[in-house]
Design goal:
mainly beta, Thrombin, subunit H, 1 helix, 6 strands
Length: 104
């Protein structure tokens, strides 16, 4: 059995929640189902192939109007399911600062 690595408490949905993934630059979009969610991330089942998609950073759209969304980065892939970490505003700046300090 795989050890649980998620830090936050997980909420699992019996039937999943319909959602969409969209590239940061808007060049791609995929339907998906959110199977579970925590404060820090989620497990998604993707409809269609993820091959060729830039999954390093993307948006998870939770509403049809696009008003509810989370910025995500890929954590893992297992067949048609992926794990994502939610990014908070300023996360990229902090990581770049840490990298620059480590390179110095």
């Amino acid at each position: 059995m795989v050890a649980e690595r998620r830090k936050g408490e997980r909420i699992t949905f019996e039937r999943g929640i319909s959602a969409h993934m969209m590239g940061i630059d808007g060049t791609w979009r995929r339907d998906c189902t959110m199977e579970d969610v925590s404060e820090t991330g989620a497990k998604l089942t993707i409809e269609g192939s993820v091959e060729g998609l830039h999954l390093k950073e993307f948006f998870l759209l939770l509403s049809s109007t696009g008003l509810a969304y989370r910025r995500c980065e890929l954590a893992w892939v297992n067949g048609d399911q992926i794990g994502v970490n939610f990014l908070k505003p300023g996360d990229k700046k902090k990581k770049a600062t840490r990298r620059a300090a480590a390179d110095a």
